[in-house]
Specification:
Layout (H helix, E strand, L loop, with lengths): L18 H20 L4 H5 L10 H19 L16 H4 L5 H24 L5 E3 L6 E3 H27 L5
Antiparallel strand pairs: 1-2
Amino acid sequence: MPDAPAPVYRIETPTEGDEKAMLLGFLDYHRATLRWKCEGLTPEQLAARAVPTSTLSLLGLVRHLAEVERSWFGRLEGNEPPGIYFTDAEPDLDLDGAVADPEVVRQAWIDWQAEVDHAREVALRTPLEVSFKHRRTGEVMTHRWTLLHMIEEYARHNGHADLLREAIDGATGE
């Protein structure tokens, strides 16, 4: 299958602007890339594991990134929101619970989009210098760090998504 053209909702990364606009633009680019890599697949394809010994799947990545959005932007707001999928007893349900059930897929996209929308709102109203102390490590982290970390998180997982998608149906693209 040839390279698929990028969808219209996936804007190019900004090449100029202030620091916050650039960071938010790169993050939205990576969010749209994840959406693109999952587009048009069945629940079975979305839940397909990379290899039998792994729990990594495209659906698992969507669920994982919903959790990541929720936790980091929640911390930025000064709270530790409960997990969407994980519990203390089952910390890997974002990946382990990514099964080929249409309702699980539907809910994953609803959760991911809700967390992205909330994170955007938090990011827009929060100055880059605002900081918080990580509950477990005690490290002080800024909003700037959070945005950079989110870009890194999506970029790494979009690399996984590229390989997963190509293995499913041969679709490739930047």
